[in-house]
Write a structure and sequence with these properties.
Elements lengths: L5 H9 L12 H7 L3 H30 L8 H23 L1 H7 L10 H12 L4 H29 L11 H16 L9
Length: 196
């Protein structure tokens, strides 16, 4: 993967390889928090920050600690420790900066730690053998792609609040249908560039 430009990886991870709508990682908080645009934007920015920081830190941990010591099998544990520390940091910052956002995000802010998209990005960068810059751009692009998806979903759901929806489809039902349609739209970009 060294032949791929970091910018290609960045844009591909937003559109053609969207971590949420192509790989379906991070769906739990996506479906739960995407009812308001403001809250979705806050969570999206938090996820983007965590993805960018943890992809850089996990690259360093893997390439400069785990590989030289031949303990690559500990990567899951090491990655989760780095992710948990980054999430704790962002949680403290959001609580100090915007208590309203902190309350609106509720349990989903600390649950970023177990968001499978965060761990998935770190594992993808190892599997694809990305360089440091490629890993950071992949993390940033994946975060922005996740944010784009949750903001799109929040905008659609806010508009649907004004419409009549059959009772059987209200809530999770319509959210899953919209997610499927959005995923098909993003998969339509897949022919443009592949980063696998």
């Amino acid at each position: 993967m060294e032949h791929l430009s970091p910018w290609v990886i960045f844009f591909a991870s937003i559109f053609t390889g969207n971590i949420l709508l192509t790989y379906f990682l991070g769906m739990c908080s996506f479906l739960s928090v995407s009812s308001q645009v403001k809250t979705s934007l806050g969570l999206g920015l938090a996820v983007t920050f965590v993805l960018t920081v943890t992809s850089a830190l996990n690259y360093v941990v893997f390439d400069y600690i785990l590989e030289p010591l031949h303990i690559e099998y500990l990567r899951y544990i090491a990655f989760i420790i780095v992710i948990a520390a980054a999430v704790q940091l962002i949680e403290m910052v959001i609580e100090r900066v915007s208590e309203v956002l902190y309350i609106n995000l509720g349990i989903f802010l600390p649950l970023i730690t177990v968001n499978c998209a965060i761990l998935g990005v770190s594992l993808f960068m190892v599997i694809r053998n990305y360089s440091f810059i490629q890993s950071v751009m992949f993390g940033l692009g994946s975060g922005l792609g996740w944010t784009l998806a949750i903001l799109s979903m929040a905008g659609i759901r806010q508009r649907l609040n004004e419409k009549r929806i059959p009772p059987a489809l209200q809530g999770a039902g319509i959210a899953l249908i919209i997610s499927g349609i959005m995923a098909m739209a993003f998969i339509g970009f897949a022919g443009m560039v592949q980063i696998q």
